[in-house]
UniProtKB/TrEMBL annotation:
<dbReference type="GO" id="GO:0031419">
    <property type="term" value="F:cobalamin binding"/>
</dbReference>
<comment type="similarity">
    <text>Belongs to the methylmalonyl-CoA mutase family.</text>
</comment>
<dbReference type="GO" id="GO:0004494">
    <property type="term" value="F:methylmalonyl-CoA mutase activity"/>
</dbReference>
<keyword id="KW-0846">Cobalamin</keyword>
<keyword id="KW-0170">Cobalt</keyword>
<comment type="subunit">
    <text>Heterodimer of an alpha and a beta chain.</text>
</comment>
<dbReference type="InterPro" id="IPR006158">
    <property type="entry name" value="Cobalamin-bd"/>
</dbReference>
<keyword id="KW-0413">Isomerase</keyword>
<dbReference type="GO" id="GO:0046872">
    <property type="term" value="F:metal ion binding"/>
</dbReference>
<dbReference type="InterPro" id="IPR006099">
    <property type="entry name" value="MeMalonylCoA_mutase_a/b_cat"/>
</dbReference>
<dbReference type="InterPro" id="IPR006159">
    <property type="entry name" value="Acid_CoA_mut_C"/>
</dbReference>
<keyword id="KW-0479">Metal-binding</keyword>
<feature type="domain" description="B12-binding">
    <location>
        <begin position="531"/>
        <end position="660"/>
    </location>
</feature>
<dbReference type="InterPro" id="IPR016176">
    <property type="entry name" value="Cbl-dep_enz_cat"/>
</dbReference>
<dbReference type="Pfam" id="PF02310">
    <property type="entry name" value="B12-binding"/>
</dbReference>
<dbReference type="InterPro" id="IPR036724">
    <property type="entry name" value="Cobalamin-bd_sf"/>
</dbReference>
<dbReference type="InterPro" id="IPR006098">
    <property type="entry name" value="MMCoA_mutase_a_cat"/>
</dbReference>
Length: 663
């Protein structure tokens, strides 16, 4: 988005809604409707199999196809996704990380079929794999090869797609994982340093084009409800980025040093209880990234009021879009210079954040940089501890959440009245159709061309040559998402990031309540003749592990022996671990909507393994009707975001264990 001259009325930011589900055809219709309503950019949500490099017919994809985004398995799906949308004129953001190179290759290939010149394409691939190791969990490859893929994309786009942002460094998910403002600034800028160092060290970009590389680095930022602090955070980001790019990399042109960012406001702060309160939260959080002209977002996408309940409907997304349009076109916000210049209060807060972030950046650099701080588990443990501290403050009432831990008395909501269908439901037939379609695609394509393109990719992956053109060749040859990813898995290997649970601390917990539950855990263990053991499992491809990690930390704090193996496990793997570790209870955490498929598979698997007496509990975004069905299928308890008191949840888990053992 071009910046105006100093005295011009500021231009509105690019307005997006994060959208995509079910199929390329359904998502295309949704995009067209959103564009007709005044949306000025597209923001594509891909489903978890696409994000983690699996085809719809893979075992790990079961229950996940089309749930949290659109499945894109090959170039045919990409053609359908953008049918009738001129890509030479579009501004498209794609939330994709591990498979970012693949999705960009599909996008470029389809744009060329539209007759668009590569040089005209504008948009963004998120492509921040470091935060995936820390928060969302949709990584595939180890950090080194992942950084190599990012480096290749940055170098290639600067020469071939100069309007494209090849990476959207994501502080958003760091805040979701618990980051304080200082940590959010420091860890995302440390990631940017790691990427720029890698690109410049690769020798793929001539010295005179370094400024162009820096100018295409964008950020994706979170804005919480403490909107004054969040606005100051954005001003701190601007100052630090300008300093780093000038002093570390010698970028002379101030335009190249601009901090360019898009934002989605804080979904973590949206509540299942009294969800109508989420509307004012979203508006206040939007102010954090728009009030300060010198630190204003250039693209905004807002969540819908009901995202803590499930998938928003088109009407909900329209409501979120209208919030942006009212602010941009009805108010006088864009008519003024920065209204905070000269504020002693703001400058003091910005100075405080800059100083704290600089110290943390230096700490990370002393460890060897962002990649080393991921591999050591340092950053993950720091985030898990910060999130544990945030939960403690909410549970104690120190941090007020309206409608949750204070002012909880409420009238019935007409937005959720019986028959209102307050969320979008994905028909299970979507997955079956996707499985059939991917098999039909493979049967109808030219297998010789596809195999040849994959062989070329594998061979190049063993060298240090750029992989983008080979990936585009795969896209045009009809290779699938799973095949492209598998070829690179064979070359690079796979990776399991540190969970951060073992080193995390949850200091300052409410001592009396924890002590009471800890005594109950101890006494129950004595009655059973052994220490209580809980397995915390993440079945399927859902990598949002924050909740599971907090459950694991609190279970450990109240005296359970905790078995937590991280994300992306099949039901069979969870069953095998539960039997091998002889646990007393299995807790499953799912936020992707796949609970009706993967949870019964675990329950049935335990029965088949002779461990049917081991109770299963579930936590996640589970609509009430689905919770009833899970209980009918044998689940002992279902916890949702409204159940925020973790120590109370631990107490209920002890009750479940006692009941299952006849105590």
């Amino acid at each position: 988005m071009p910046y105006p001259a100093d005295r011009e009325r500021d231009r509105p930011w690019v307005m997006r809604t994060y959208a995509g589900h079910s199929s390329a055809t359904a998502s295309n219709a949704l995009y067209r409707r959103n564009l007709a309503k005044g949306q000025t950019g597209l923001s594509v949500a891909f489903d978890l199999p696409t994000q983690t490099g699996y085809d719809p017919d893979d075992e790990l994809a079961k229950g996940e196809v089309g749930k949290v985004g659109v499945p894109v398995g090959h170039i045919g799906d990409m053609r359908q996704l953008f049918d009738g949308i001129p890509l030479g004129e579009a501004n498209t953001s794609m939330t994709i990380n591990a498979t970012a190179m693949w999705l960009l290759a599909l996008y470029v290939s389809v744009a060329e079929e539209h007759g668009a010149d590569r040089a005209t394409l504008a948009g963004t691939t998120q492509n921040d794999i470091i935060k995936e190791y820390l928060s969302r969990g949709t990584y595939v490859f180890p950090p080194g090869p992942s950084l190599r893929l990012i480096t290749d994309m940055v170098a290639w786009t600067v020469s071939n797609v100069p309007k494209w942002n090849p990476i959207n460094i994501c502080s958003y998910h760091l805040q979701e994982a618990g980051a304080t403002p200082v940590q959010e600034i420091a860890y995302s800028l440390s990631t940017a340093i790691a990427v720029l160092d890698s690109v410049f060290d690769s020798g793929q970009v001539p010295e005179e084009r370094r400024g162009e590389v820096v100018a295409r680095i964008s950020f994706f930022v979170n804005a919480g409800v403490r909107f004054v602090e969040e606005m100051c955070k954005m001003r701190a980001f601007v100052r630090l980025w300008d300093d780093i790019t000038r002093d570390r990399y010698g970028i002379a042109d101030p335009k190249h040093r601009r901090f360019r960012y898009g934002v989605q406001v804080n979904s973590l702060g949206l509540t299942e209880a009294q969800p109508e309160n989420n509307v004012q939260r979203i508006v206040l959080e939007m102010l954090a990234v728009t009030l300060s002209r010198d630190a204003r977002a250039r693209a905004i996408q807002l969540p819908a009021w009901n995202e803590a309940l499930g998938l928003p409907r088109p009407w909900d997304q329209q409501w979120a879009l209208r919030m942006q349009q009212v602010l941009a076109y009805e108010t006088d916000l864009l008519e003024y210079q920065d209204i905070f210049d000269g504020s002693h209060v703001v400058e003091a807060k910005v100075d405080e954040l800059v100083e704290g972030a600089r110290a943390e950046i230096d700490r990370v650099q002393a460890m060897g940089g962002a990649v080393a701080a991921v591999e050591s588990g340092y950053m993950k443990s720091a985030l898990v501890s910060s999130l544990a501290d945030r939960r403690r403050r909410v549970e104690s009432g120190e941090d007020v959440v309206v409608g949750v831990n204070k002012f909880a008395t409420t009238e019935p909501s007409p937005l959720q009245a019986e028959g209102a269908k307050a969320i979008e439901q994905i028909d299970p037939v979507v997955e079956r159709h996707a499985v059939e379609a991917i098999r039909a695609w493979k049967a109808s394509r030219d297998d010789v061309s596809a195999k040849s393109a994959l062989d070329d990719l594998r061979a190049l992956a063993k060298t240090d040559r750029n992989l983008v053109e080979a990936t585009i060749a795969c896209a045009k040859a009809g290779v699938t998402t799973g095949e492209w990813s598998q070829a690179l898995r064979e070359a690079f290997g796979e990776y399991r990031a540190p969970t951060g649970v073992s080193a995390a601390s949850a200091s300052g917990e409410a001592g009396a309540e924890i002590a009471r539950v800890r005594e109950r855990v101890r006494a129950t263990g004595e009655e059973l003749g052994e220490r209580l053991r809980i397995l915390v499992g993440k079945p399927g491809l859902d990598g949002h592990s924050n909740g599971a990690e907090q459950v694991a930390v609190r279970a450990r704090d109240v005296g359970f022996e905790v078995v937590y193996q991280g994300i992306r496990l099949t039901p069979a793997q969870i069953v095998a671990a539960a039997v091998q570790e002889d646990v007393h209870v299995v807790g499953l955490s799912i936020l992707s909507g796949s609970h009706l498929e993967v949870v019964p598979a675990v329950v049935d698997g335990l029965r088949a393994a002779g461990a049917g007496d081991v109770p299963v509990i579930v936590g996640g975004i589970v609509p009430p009707d689905d919770a009833d069905e899970l209980r009918e299928r044998g689940v002992a308890r279902v916890f949702t975001p409204k159940d925020y008191e973790l120590t109370q949840i631990m107490d209920e888990i002890v009750a479940v264990v006692r009941d299952a053992n006849g105590l």
